[in-house]
């Protein structure tokens, strides 16, 4: 691979993917205002570099929930990696491991929890949705504990699936060879058939996602696992404080990549108020719109402990499988190190709001 930026890798991936798959990955909900905002808000911030600082030995390592990451970058949970590469999530977790980075494996993975764990050489967390059957959820939690996952990530912003118009127009459904193998096939029936004007993924969510989920349920889950519980989908100070009160070990500032409530604030906009609402040592992660090491540096300066990257990893898989995903993550890592050196802040811990200038909306 000779691409020098994530944009070039994206362009290469777009030429290789079927239209319906490409739009499933790229699309947001409704008018896609939040999807666009996730990207555009990074342009609001400029850097305030310091000079005459020794940057000869930059160090990107960070500690996160008991694990050491080689850089504050991880793979966001995304379903169905086999849509773009036959090896699926095992290729992704190997790619992250090459760089010592975090992988958050999705519940709707095409590889089993155990297969993914065997291939992991970096930190590994498991993402969950709250399904109507609690026994399914607790079964996945027990398997994750046995397989050696270090944390659980509960997605809390999806009581129903956003209105994703691209998928509806394409009648998106999973091809027969792509299945969520960690769930009973009977729970996944709706994902394999659809027609124009409908989405099999949305229909499956309507049938299986539990819309009664509340903070009481979060506390219930917290009591039933020894693993740290991370809540993904937090956008407000109010919910950040409740997450701390209900035993969460960390939160992910996320709007589901712009795929849920259209018009929800961009994650970079929400980040400062979430950080301000929680204790100083409470980890706040961010996903949404990270397309370069400078984007990652901006989020870290605004208080994120680690950033999670979604779509670019799938682009890398589509272009070059495991090597392509590793290329994406390596580029981000290298760009982040380069940015911190030129900022005169050679470690993530050196970053704070003073590294940024607000250029306006």
UniProtKB/TrEMBL annotation:
It holds the Pfam family FMN_dh. Its EC number is 1.1.3.46. Residues 1-361 form the FMN hydroxy acid dehydrogenase domain. The keyword Protein transport does not apply. It comes from the Bacteria. One of its GO terms (molecular function) is oxidoreductase activity, acting on CH-OH group of donors. Glyoxylate binds at residues 129, 164, 256, 259. FMN binds at residues 77-79, 127, 155, 232, 254, 287-291, 310-311. Belongs to the FMN-dependent alpha-hydroxy acid dehydrogenase family. This is 4-hydroxymandelate oxidase. It comes from Kitasatospora gansuensis.
């Amino acid at each position: 691979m000779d691409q020098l930026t994530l944009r070039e890798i994206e362009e290469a991936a777009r030429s290789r993917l079927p239209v319906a798959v490409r739009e499933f990955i790229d699309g947001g909900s409704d008018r896609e205002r939040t999807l666009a905002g996730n990207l555009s808000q990074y342009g609001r911030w400029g850097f305030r570099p310091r000079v005459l600082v020794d940057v000869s030995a930059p160090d990107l390592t960070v500690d996160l929930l008991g694990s050491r990451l080689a850089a504050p970058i991880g793979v966001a949970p995304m379903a169905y990696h086999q849509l773009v590469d036959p090896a699926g999530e095992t290729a992704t977790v190997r790619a992250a491991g090459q760089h010592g980075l975090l992988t958050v494996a999705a519940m709707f993975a095409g590889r089993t929890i155990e297969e993914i764990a065997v291939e992991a050489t970096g930190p590994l967390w498991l993402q969950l949705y709250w399904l109507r059957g609690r026994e399914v959820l607790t079964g996945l939690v027990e398997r994750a504990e046995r397989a050696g996952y270090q944390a659980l990530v509960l997605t809390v912003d999806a009581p129903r699936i956003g209105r994703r118009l691209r998928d509806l127009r394409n009648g998106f459904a999973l091809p027969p060879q792509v299945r969520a193998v960690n769930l009973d096939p009977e729970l996944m029936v709706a994902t394999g058939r659809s027609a124009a004007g409908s989405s099999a993924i949305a229909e499956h969510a309507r049938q299986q996602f539990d819309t009664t989920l509340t903070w009481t349920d979060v506390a219930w889950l917290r009591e039933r696992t020894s693993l740290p519980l991370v809540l993904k989908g937090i956008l407000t100070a109010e919910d950040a404080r409740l997450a701390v009160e209900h035993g969460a070990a960390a939160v992910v500032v996320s709007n589901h990549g712009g795929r849920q409530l259209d018009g929800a604030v961009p994650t970079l906009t929400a980040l400062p108020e979430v950080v301000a609402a929680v204790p100083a040592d409470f980890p706040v992660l961010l996903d949404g719109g990270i397309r370069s090491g400078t984007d990652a540096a901006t989020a870290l300066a605004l208080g994120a402990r680690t950033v999670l990257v979604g779509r670019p990893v799938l682009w890398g898989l589509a272009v070059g499988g495991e090597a392509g995903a590793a290329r994406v993550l390596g580029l981000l890592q290298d760009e982040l190190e380069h940015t911190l050196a030129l900022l005169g802040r050679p470690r993530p811990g050196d970053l704070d709001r003073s590294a940024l200038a607000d250029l306006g909306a």
